[in-house]
Known about the structure:
- The chain is 39% helix and 23% strand.
- It is an alpha+beta fold.
- It has a 6-stranded mixed beta sheet. It has a two-stranded antiparallel ribbon with strand order 1-2. A two-stranded parallel sheet has the order 3-4.
Amino acid sequence: MLSVSNVIPKELLPLGGKPLIQHAIEEAIESGVEEVIVVTRPEKSLLNAFLAGDWELAGSALGQKADTDALSRKVNFILVDQPQPRGLGDALLCAQSAIGNEPFGVILPDAIVEADIPALAQLAAAFREQESAYVATQPVGLADTSRFGMLAVDPCDPIGARDTFRVRSIVEKPHPRQAPSRFGVFGRYILTRQIFSFLSEIAIDTVGDVELSNALSGYCGRHSLLAVRFDGRHYDAGDPLGYHQAVLEFTLKNSDIGSSLRDYLLRNIERESDERSITALPDLL
């Protein structure tokens, strides 16, 4: 997605008629969050304009409209600058003073989760039953382990009706043979203030990032870190294939154009099937 995100911040890519960041904010609101801290960078002027409701700049550039005034009436926005793109762990360190000492949730805007109950709300429900840090998890296909932080886990008693695991460590994007389990991390967390001391202590990785997964591996050696298997369908909107899959699924559910798109896809599938059949005929003669 690099060529697109050089012009438009990835958080503003459209999905279902609104930008990815709006999906994240709406999930936070539906999960009971009253204050949303957005970590951004100075060069992301369009993102900052969007969050500020400046449609003279953002709306004309994006060609889409969102009622950020309505969102701001439901939640308090705080914008925090991250001077350099140094990973999720560094983003949290930049937001530390705004977060304070209370437990807090984390939503990655490019990790889209379509669910009846928002993924963050599922973690929050588990937190209310048992205070701990949490990550959202689902099984990952072996071919995809190199795209996720993968969990080393032990089974424990379920919280509510959800499968729950105790996390022993996290391996960031391992080769399938090095994956400690089939369970990955899916862009939703509930963390406690103790995570900041681990973030401050870990070494910067080879590409200059402060990885949250490395800090969590240290954290779970001293504190409780649980993984909840959430209900919902995940789309990796930071990946070209995942983003287009999400666009397709959301558009098919659109009441205005979904049925027309479905008819178009079926016609193309039938045509390609016919063409393959015709191509195969010489081999049968």
